[in-house]
Amino acid sequence: MEVLGFVVLGLATGLLASTLGIGGGIIFVPSLVVFFGFEQHLAQGTSVAVIVPTAIVGTILHAQRGRVVWRVAILVACGGIVGGLLG
Q1: Residue 27 and residue 17 in contact, taking contact as beta carbons nearer than 8 Å
Q2: Can you give the pTM of this predicted structure?
Q3: Residue 47 in contact with residue 29, Cβ under 8 Å?
Q4: Which candidate, 14, 20, 18, 58, places its Cα nearest to that of 28?
Q5: Would you place residue 14 in the very low, low, confident or very high pLDDT band (cuts 50, 70, 90)?
Q6: Mean per-residue pLDDT for 71-87?
Q7: What is the average pLDDT score of the chain?
Q8: Three-class SS string for the chain?
Q9: Distance (Å, rounded) from C-alpha 28 to C-alpha 10?
Q10: How confident is residue 59, by pLDDT bands cut at 50, 70 and 90?
C-alpha cells in the first residue's frame, strides 16, 4: 500500500509542479514528512534523488526540439557542482 502512496505522490507532484510552474520539492518534501513520516533531511535527500531521472527525461525531450543552449547549460552545471560541494 505504501508503494501505491509513493506512486500517487509522484504523479500528484509532477502534475502540480508542471501545471503551476514550481519545483516539485515544494510539494514532495513536506508530503514525505507529513504523510510518510520521513525525517526532514531524509525527505530532502530523497527529493534531490528524484530530480535526476526527471531532469534526464526533460533534457532529452528539450534537446530533441533544439531548446537547449548547451554552452550555457554546461557552464551553469559546472558552477552548480562547485557551489554544491562548497555549500
Answers
A1: yes
A2: 0.74
A3: yes
A4: 14
A5: confident
A6: 95
A7: 92
A8: CHHHHHHHHHHHHHHHHHHHCCCCHHHHHHHHHHHHCCCHHHHHHHHHHHHHHHHHHHHHHHHHCCCCCHHHHHHHHHHHHHHHHHC
A9: 8
A10: very high
